[in-house]
Request: fold
Amino acid sequence: MSSNMQPQTLKGFRDFLPETMAIRTRVISTLKAVFESYGFAELQTPTLEYAEVLTGKYGEEAEKLMYLFKDSGGRAVGLKYDLTVPLARVMAQYPNLPKPFKRYQIQPAFRAENTQKSRYREFYQCDIDTVGTTSPASDAEILAVISDSLKALGFSDFTIRVNSRQILFDLIIKSGIPSNKSLTVLQSIDKLDKKSREEVQLELESKQITSLQIKDLFYYLDKAQPDAQLQEVITIAKKIGAKNVKFDPNLVRGLDYYTGAIFETVVEKPKIGSITGGGRYDQLIKTLGGPDLPAVGTTIGLDRICDVISELNLWPDLPKSPTRVIITIFSPGLLNNSLSLSQSLRTQNINVELYPNPNVKLDKQLKYASAKGIPFVAILGPEEVEKNQVTLKNMTTGDQVKISPDEIQSRIS
Amino acid sequence: MSSNMQPQTLKGFRDFLPETMAIRTRVISTLKAVFESYGFAELQTPTLEYAEVLTGKYGEEAEKLMYLFKDSGGRAVGLKYDLTVPLARVMAQYPNLPKPFKRYQIQPAFRAENTQKSRYREFYQCDIDTVGTTSPASDAEILAVISDSLKALGFSDFTIRVNSRQILFDLIIKSGIPSNKSLTVLQSIDKLDKKSREEVQLELESKQITSLQIKDLFYYLDKAQPDAQLQEVITIAKKIGAKNVKFDPNLVRGLDYYTGAIFETVVEKPKIGSITGGGRYDQLIKTLGGPDLPAVGTTIGLDRICDVISELNLWPDLPKSPTRVIITIFSPGLLNNSLSLSQSLRTQNINVELYPNPNVKLDKQLKYASAKGIPFVAILGPEEVEKNQVTLKNMTTGDQVKISPDEIQSRIS
Reply:
């Protein structure tokens, strides 16, 4: 940085300072444990790809948001835009991967979004997908993974809405709407969540759908039931423990590439809204340049989850610091006693921080512990050393006790 | 990808497929546990920074290797080149962070290296640093972290070489060499590891160092001892458990920015060579655009460690797959039994994969388990179901037993 420049991150990019990382690490390790309990294994792909791998897949709008540039060797390259295109490349590049290939991937993706909408330009995607089978058990497993993930994170009040693209297409056809209008009609149905039927009716009329067709459409939406395939997905999902799975014929999901079941999860308490989206996409891997393999999966809104836990202070007991106890240094002459205690506690698998400077007043050392949210402070003054004791201060309650060093472990865990 | 393009990663960039990720995840979690046991907390910074933050810090050679480009808003930006410049920016951007600030950071950095030397262009850096104190206890702690890290990874045959820039400068002056030649003389001393004294002597002569000065230099190198400050670092390090710390006056470390103690670790068995490098750098944070804060730290060669563990198969017992047992499906009619068993085992905290397709022959399901390195297979055929049993096959030994479902947990752990 030149001296007249304010040191700063780029707009839409974030530093994760230790307190924030504590939440993210806990969220990610919780999710990984659930994913792995279903046999999903981790995949990571590079930050940079050939531009040709990224472009021509999701249309011009997406391409405008991509970070594309030439590297110093003149190659056209780009930053990852999502985790699905790299998955398609991986399936093509390693044809011998055993199938079904069940992977999760938690990595940053990059989009030059308008930051005024408080969107991140570098954001974490968290995707779980099964590639290479059309079995409804794989769709069901995704629902069970979502359910177990939310429960493990402490969100118990949620609904997993499920529907099927096939059901939607069928009822559009049954209403007498020409099939070339299916996608635009889907876009209108998608708005029934937020708009009244009257408003959606007006929109459909503007798309040259007749009143009779609209009336029939709403009628069939009202009495829609899961078809045999979706019913099987729901039944299996419930059998393997998925909670709050609910058929919802109004669910559309914006993306055109879904071919079968579609899912979306809404967390009602706390009012987070939609935090997962997914479904079956049997053509997409091929469309993206991969082999012709069916797939089903979901994305989980990791950044949103972390932000909500932080903003609403949902995990007040999560330690802000990895350090359980800080050993202060009373004076330069007593440094050795503090060193020995730190070493002894560490061999008992306690995370210990040693205040490094023996020339700093005890008061300032306590302030440091407090600023970092370290829950316990050990003080080794001349009196304590003489009696082979330690003063242990609980920084939450302010209580302090003189105890033998052997008692520290049981007191602080 | 256009249809005529071979799907591929960019040169110097890597996919980490699940088997590789298993090793990396274990290495990283082992290191994190050690770092946190000393009170180091995790920091993450963005992939992209303002180009101005990155450039003008490490000279032209480094800049040639940087990925610099203009984003779609016309801003000059660049991919992280290391983790030290972002640390300096963080220290400047958040002046109220409690100090000493002890952080570790494990993230990719990007350098357009010549890939013929089998260097990665996206590689993981793993840095541990203490910012804001000159206390020798902080230098010592870095040595203890290195020692504990290597032991925890299973490398017990290593030497942590330590020296001090001050000692080197002092003996150069004592040999009568003008101080403006200190850095170039250091570069020659650095080669004593690989070259003979005669060769280094010739090199020094070509730098206009006299024979007498060279003779004195070698003499003082031979009888060099740690000064008081370095001795304190070594003494404290040993007291808090650092093993195999050895004073080595020939250690120089290439980088110009070290101001005090310098460290390097060589692993002798397996013959990995140098895998950590670090030291005290009391001026660097300021030079890089941050505030005037002393610092000490080390980098650990994470990619090298992971590559060696993989190439030499040092962790043969590390599971290749997160899945402990796969539940096969004997036939469509017995799907429900397999579903129930998978759900029941998962509630016992066992990582279970369900083979998703009931129409695939058992033989192929077993091959899938074998290809993925899943250690146990559970078979639920009509006979087993009738007797409320499960056939459990150990894929390593080939043994199979008919047992009650309740016994699975104890058999596979």
